[in-house]
Amino acid sequence: MNELLVRTATAVVALVVFLLLTFFAPDWLWALFIASVIGAAAWEWGRLVKLTSIEAIGYAGVTVALLAVLWRVTGIATGAIHAPVAAAAVIPALFFWVALAPVMVQFQIPLCSRLIGLVLGWVTLLGAGIAALGLREVSSGFLLAAVTLVWIADTAAFFVGRRYGSRKLLEAVSPGKTWAGFWGALGAVAAYGAVLYPVMGVGQGVFGWVLAFVGVALLAVTGDLFESWLKRNAGVKDSGGILPGHGGVLDRIDALLAVLPITALWWLHW
């Protein structure tokens, strides 16, 4: 019970902070927040690929510096976003999540070297960071919709899987995930897309819109499984311990890393 209370309290505090920053923070404070999240995630990523603590700190510092450079180069820092440049920063991450991550997880292909692991970290973390900065610059509502999609998918997967789950989704990678939870997540996200359709006022048909939401949900599952695969290879249960009851930053943003790039490209037409 105490663990559940700690987990719930952490989630509530994180949600309040996120909402306040998303809708009320000045641009510089939002950028600082995203840089802090990406920096913490980069430190955890470095540790997962077997860097020492000092090396992981250096890796996190370089990652934040690269994010700052991209923030300026893409025009997000000034509000004059250069769409082709922003897309170039995000597309490599999307390619990884669509084409490489599912294969690596399904066939449990190990990283050939730490260097490859570090490069993949830059691709995924920087792509998600730029997407988060760009989405908020254009529309806080777009950003909130993407985060809500991940939250709905996670929540539905947990409760449906707990109630009906028996057959494991990918036991060698993540023993707690079931096919029932997987289908529950897709169904909940499809319903979310249908509800959101008239609110967003999009031009495409409702079927295509809902199908796109399901596709994004599949990427969320991929992000979750890939981080579980990284932890399994590192021999750890959590990516870190900075969030009481939740583990590390990567444990909380794993699905978002995969969802944010496609959301930015789709909704912002980069």
TrEMBL record:
Alphabetical keyword list: Cell membrane, Lipid biosynthesis, Lipid metabolism, Membrane, Nucleotidyltransferase, Phospholipid biosynthesis, Phospholipid metabolism, Transferase, Transmembrane, Transmembrane helix
Pfam families the UniProt entry points to: CTP_transf_1
Membrane topology summary: Multi-pass membrane protein
Coiled-coil region(s): none
Transmembrane segments: 5-24, 56-74, 80-103, 115-135, 141-160, 180-200, 206-226
BP term (GO), one: CDP-diacylglycerol biosynthetic process
Pathway per the UniProt entry: Lipid metabolism; Phospholipid metabolism; CDP-diacylglycerol biosynthesis; CDP-diacylglycerol from sn-glycerol 3-phosphate: step 3/3
Database matches in PROSITE patterns: CDS (PS01315)
Chemical reaction(s) catalysed: a 1,2-diacyl-sn-glycero-3-phosphate + CTP + H(+) = a CDP-1,2-diacyl-sn-glycerol + diphosphate
Annotated InterPro entries: PC_trans (IPR000374)
Any one of the GO CC terms: plasma membrane
GO molecular function annotations of the record: phosphatidate cytidylyltransferase activity
Highest taxon listed in the record's lineage: Bacteria
EC number: 2.7.7.41
Localization terms from the record: Cell membrane
Entry keyword Lipid metabolism: yes
Signal peptide range: none
PANTHER family documented for this protein: PHOSPHATIDATE CYTIDYLYLTRANSFERASE
Family: Belongs to the CDS family.
Protein name (Swiss-Prot/TrEMBL): Phosphatidate cytidylyltransferase
Species: Hydrogenophilus thermoluteolus (Pseudomonas hydrogenothermophila)
